[in-house]
Fold this sequence. Notes:
The complex is a heterodimer. Chain A is mainly alpha-helical.
Amino acid sequence: MLAFRSEEHVERWCRRRAVPRGATFTLEQARRLGAAWYADRLSPDWRRPTPEEAERIFAAIGLTGDFWRLRG
Amino acid sequence: MSTTEALDRDLRLLVYRHIVDEGAPPTAAQAAEELGRPTAEAEDALRRLEAGRVLVLAPGTVNVWMANPFSAVPTDFRVTSASGSWWANCVWDAFGIPAVLGEDAVISTHCADCGEALELAVRGDSLEPAEGVAHFAVPARRWWENIGYT
């Protein structure tokens, strides 16, 4: 997952590299995703989130739709 | 918890502790020594952790490449807090490092398109500047087909 100055820069990067456009979201959403995903990583009891749990984390910060689905 | 599960848990925590405290993961031999186990057991545990998608090893080795959000090799995502500096694997992971540390941090990266430097300051729950976007090239269910490219 890369950072860009704006949507226009994403468009140009994809075009130049012939990479299909994926999903974009704000850096604030990326911050919230990082915080939610990793806050307990140093806990002895940490385990990988299940697909259901991961989808709930995505949805809680507005990352929904087929791109973010892990099941099915 | 089985002996194997306990070893895997202890090794995972040791890897993270090394990275947080020293900036780099231990080798399998170092980890084995600190855990009081044979090196072969630590190597097997590292392979199990990779198979369980807990860590990523450098291809063909038992050297830790990624203990997300941390990268053991330099990347374009440098995260600096009051207690040190670390490499992250991507911008998502870069935001994960202050969460792991429980500290404010500054992320130094570049716009992947134009190369302009981006300095992103995380203070508590706030981000400055908040402009900019993140892009995932690969849908979530395919991330682990090539975790080095998402």
